[in-house]
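Practice problem: predict the structure.
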Amino acid sequence: MNTYFLRVSAHSIERSTKIIAIRKVLSMRVFGNITYLSKYCNYFYIFVPVVCIFCYASGSIVYAHQEEPSITITDVGSFTDAMGIKNIVGTVENNNDIPIETAIAINATTADGKAAPPLVAEPYGKIVYPYSAAPFKVEVSSELKPVGKPFAYHARNVNIPHYDVIRLNYTNTPIQNGSLIGSVKNIASFDVYDLTIYASAHTQNGSQVDSVRSHLIPILRSGEKVKFIVSPDLAVKSKVSFYSCFGVDFSTTNMKIRIGENRYVTSNMTGLATISNVKPEPSTGSILIDIDNQYPVPGPLSLKIPQIFSSPTIFVMMDGSIYKNAVTMMKGYTYVNLFIPAGKHEVTISGIG
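Answer:
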């Protein structure tokens, strides 16, 4: 089996819209860019298929328009489980148009009143995309006492693509034991690895009582559809009336794209982009990339491909037109560099294999 390597960096962003009806917010305090809501927001939900997003750590490209991370911590609640562990739950929201990577923490003291190191946990979606949210849960052992409210332990902008390739099918209402069952489908032309589905569990009045996620799905093949289940802790299952804030977390590092019989391109993509498809055409040795740049300025798209022939001829097209002067060769690699204008485009890389 021959495996080749393709590196892509791109510049675009995906915004998401959430329909919210705010019933009541008792008080609000703002510390720098971190906003704390001391009372939940009661959400109004519509039953639609959910388009979710992928995340994986990318390079250190920085764009001039990026602002400092701005997040809101909402729907904070707590419960004590059967093991005596106190669980602090809530939701973290990204208020900017750049994806962020963050961790949530809470201060704690020991039984004799001494300060303990902050207790830190990642949101269930490791990358929180623009204007979207992810639930979190911080566990406090019985030997410690939580102090104050959850806070952002760190938050930083990251340049990673939004992969619009996963579809969830579910209803917000749990079954009798508080669990929720749905299905997840991979509509991409490549396999997805290490997939989990997450959500927030709410009481009838809208308070968040738990943050839940499914078991790990090691691999979801291209076109494959499987069932998933999320379940609340036994201590709160009788209180759960509905779920919200659904999302997925998965890795596409070194994803293999088949370009022929036992021939693959191994692809890593970095930068900001909405990637709706990466489709191979084995008959022509081509790869088609559907990309959406939602910024008003062009963004870079760069590819690094090993020279798999002694004199490779690689053609690059955008929206059916030849993109000239995009290909250079150096030190055993073919480099493709172009800029993606604002809007949706199809990039075709031909002659790979």
